[in-house]
Amino acid sequence: MKTLLRRLFVVTGVVASLLIGALSIDAAAAWTRAAAPPAAPVVTVASLQAQLDAERARSAQLSELLQSLDAHSQELTTGLAAAEARIGADLKVAQSMSVQLVAAKKQLATLRTQMAAAKAALARAAAAASTTTAAAATTGSKATTGSSGTTGTTTTTSTSGAVASPPPYEGGDDGD
Predict the structure, then answer these.
(1) What would the DSSP string read from start to end of the chain?
(2) pTM (2 decimals)?
(3) Nearest one of 143, 175, 140, 147 to 162, comparing CA atoms
(4) What is the distance between the alpha carbons of residues 160 and 176, in angstroms, rounded to a whole number?
(5) Theoretical Cys-Cys bridge with 136: which of 48, 97, 127, 143, CB 3.0 to 4.6 Å?
(6) In whole angstroms, what is the distance from residue 76 CA to residue 82 CA?
(7) d(CA 10, CA 176)
(8) Which residues contact 125 (CB under 8 A, 6 or more apart)?
């Protein structure tokens, strides 16, 4: 009977071990299922066709947008080329005007020099007239000068030696 009891305990232990092993495998499977990501949804042909149509529509919109951007880019390129041409033309005009300005400055300097020389000559003439008038005043005579042929003005000197200044130039443009 001892052997029978021993066999019964061994068989019970083996069956219990098998049950514990099966339960632990089942628990490990449940734990793995819970930790695993959700399964991918089932893809049907209709859903794939709908996605394809949506992507085609999006692609058509993007193509239209790209064509619009391309046209706008070409307009900007044309405008930029026109602006560069205008800048080139303006640069040529500015260079020409710079040359004209230099020439005008030279002419102005020449005119100022001539004006200074004319003022100096006028001052010398006035001084000479003053000394002539002063000499005439000491002899008791009255001196007058004639009219100028270019401007039509008359300069008269008094016995006191003062010279009347000529009126300002009122002529027209001389064509320069």
Answers:
(1) -HHHHHHHHHHHHHHHHHHHHHHHHHHHHHHHHHHSPPPPPPP-HHHHHHHHHHHHHHHHHHHHHHHHHHHHHHHHHHHHHHHHHHHHHHHHHHHHHHHHHHHHHHHHHHHHHHHHHHHHHHHHHHHHHHHHHHHHHHHT------B-TTT--B--B-TTS-BPPPPPP-------
(2) 0.38
(3) 143
(4) 41
(5) 143
(6) 10
(7) 137
(8) none
Distance CA 61, CA 63 (A): 5
**Dist CA 110 CA 95 (whole Å):** 23
Encode pLDDT of 74-123 as tens digits: 999 999 999 999 999 999 999 999 999 999 999 999 999 999 999 999 99
Cα 143 to chain centroid distance, Å, stands at 72
The tens digit of pLDDT for each residue in 21-36 reads 999 999 999 998 888 8
Enter the tokens of residue 85: 């041409």
